[in-house]
């Protein structure tokens, strides 16, 4: 997107965009902190929580990109709700990833 906006033919559009910011991918530690912050901001008080292997899997899939972190965590949290579990596991994150990738077979 950045490269496209920098093209000469889009200069008028680029001039109308008042704020541009490039967010670098988060590190593994930052991903865990980001997820914890989002849970707390949503009102969670330690429950639900992601296990350490689940956090590693989120990072592996998302490569630290917040949009992907949000998407996979949303589906994993839904899986935890369905399974009535306070702990979001490696397996739940795996299922969330398969759903996001369209690999769920009914």
Describe this structure as you would to a colleague.
The structure is a single chain. The protein is elongated, with a radius of gyration of 17 Å. The protein is built from six helices and two strands; from the N terminus they run αααβααβα. The protein is mainly α and 106 residues long. It has a two-stranded parallel ribbon. 59% of the residues lie in helices and 4% in strands. The mean pLDDT is 89. 18% of the residues are buried. Helix 4 crosses helix 5.
Briefly characterize the structure.
The protein is mainly alpha-helical. It is built from 6 helices and 2 strands. The radius of gyration is 17 Å and the shape is elongated.
Report the order of strands and helices.
HHHEHHEH
Low-confidence stretches: none
Strand order of the largest sheet: 1-2
Q: Based on CA inertia axes, which overall geometry fits?
A: elongated
Mean pLDDT: 89
| Main sheet summary | 2 strands, parallel
Which structural class is indicated by helix and strand composition?
Answer: mainly alpha
What is the rounded distance between the termini?
Answer: 36 Å
Oligomer: single chain
Q: Beta-strand percentage?
A: under 5%
Tally of helical segments: 6
Question: Keyphrases for this structure?
Answer:
106 residues, mainly alpha, two-stranded parallel ribbon, 4% strand, elongated
């Amino acid at each position: 997107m950045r490269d496209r906006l920098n093209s000469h033919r889009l200069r008028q559009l680029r001039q109308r965009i008042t704020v541009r910011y490039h967010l670098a991918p988060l590190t593994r530690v930052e991903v865990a902190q980001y997820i914890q912050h989002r849970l707390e901001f949503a009102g969670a008080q330690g429950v639900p929580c992601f296990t350490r292997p689940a956090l590693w899997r989120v990072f592996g899939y998302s490569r630290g990109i917040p949009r992907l972190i949000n998407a996979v965590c949303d589906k994993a949290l839904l899986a935890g709700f369905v399974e009535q579990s306070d702990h979001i596991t490696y397996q739940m994150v795996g299922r969330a990833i398969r759903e996001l990738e369209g690999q769920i077979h009914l």
